[in-house]
Design brief:
mainly beta; Maltoporin, Chain A; 2 domains; 1 helix; 22 strands; globular
């Protein structure tokens, strides 16, 4: 709805129905499993043009995401995973002026249920994490430097990513303390890229930073191995440097090359299925031809 030259309001309603089925034809018996979810998703948004270079925006909507087939039906057994449901709020400012583009957003996500990794499970399954709260800031800045160079950057700051309310087992013991940080949610994620374009050549030098992450609901800090062989602990932050280039000979033929982790940074990417070390320095070259 266009309320004025500056103000616009958008309302929406979406219904999603999702069904999953898995069948193992290699088993001696005809094993199969299925699960399904349906959700009604309302949403409301608004924009206000403060001036030609600056726009304010806000939205509130219900979000829904079914569990992936590999998670919901792990081991040909319905894991009883509820769909992820959340009420999301976003508000911020964005705009462009001369060679600059910019955006700053505050976000808040209240989950009725969030599916999280279950490190200590024998099948490396995921589990219903229950109510969680995520809120923070996102910022992005682009700057056309001239002479073919462009600088782009983004940062996400999530000071709050916590479980809302304590979880207890059948005996009343606390299994997830109230206020503990949600697993695999770093406080900081930042990206910086310097792009260069001349003629048919495009290149980009990028830096990616990922902050520290807890891997279990107890927020264990030292990485330790349990008696059953599972690992828990806090993953250290890491910073990666990448270089990409593409040369277009024609609209149908192009040559690309990429170098990932140029500094050969050694880091732990995950503890979900043991200690997973991040990818070492790698170089890929490819040719693309359309016909």
């Amino acid at each position: 709805f266009v309320m004025s030259d500056r103000l616009a309001i958008t309302a929406g309603l979406r219904v999603e129905s999702y069904e999953q089925m898995s069948k193992n034809k290699r088993a001696a018996t005809d094993n199969k499993a299925d699960t399904s979810n349906t959700e009604v998703l309302p949403g409301l948004g608004a924009t206000y043009q403060i001036n030609p270079a600056l726009q304010a925006f806000a939205s509130v909507y219900k979000a829904f995401s079914p569990a992936l087939n590999s998670d919901a039906l792990n081991g040909l057994e319905d894991q009883q995973l509820d769909a992820e449901r959340s009420i999301n709020i976003e508000t911020g400012l964005r705009g462009a002026r001369d060679q600059l583009t910019y955006e700053l957003t505050f976000f808040r996500m209240d989950f009725d249920n969030q599916i999280i990794p279950a490190n200590s499970n024998s099948q490396f399954q995921r589990t219903n994490g229950g109510e969680t709260l995520h809120q923070g800031l996102e910022a992005a800045l682009g700057w056309e430097l001239g002479a073919g160079f462009t600088l782009t950057s983004s940062a996400t700051y999530i000071p709050d990513a916590e479980f809302a309310g304590a979880r207890r087992d059948a005996n009343g013991n606390v299994t997830t303390p109230d206020g503990n940080r949600v697993t695999y949610v770093p406080e900081w994620v930042t990206n910086l890229s310097l792009e260069y374009k001349t003629g048919k050549l495009r290149t980009a030098l990028s830096v990616h930073h990922t902050g520290e992450q807890y891997t279990d609901v107890l927020n264990t800090k030292p990485i330790t191995e349990s008696t059953s062989g599972f690992f828990t602990g806090q993953i250290d932050s890491y910073t990666l440097l990448d270089l990409n280039a593409v040369y277009e000979f024609s609209k149908d033929l192009s040559l690309s090359a990429s170098a990932k982790n140029l500094t050969d940074e050694r880091y732990i990417a995950s503890l979900r299925q043991g200690i997973y070390v991040g990818t070492e320095r790698s170089i890929d070259v490819g040719v693309r031809f359309k016909f």
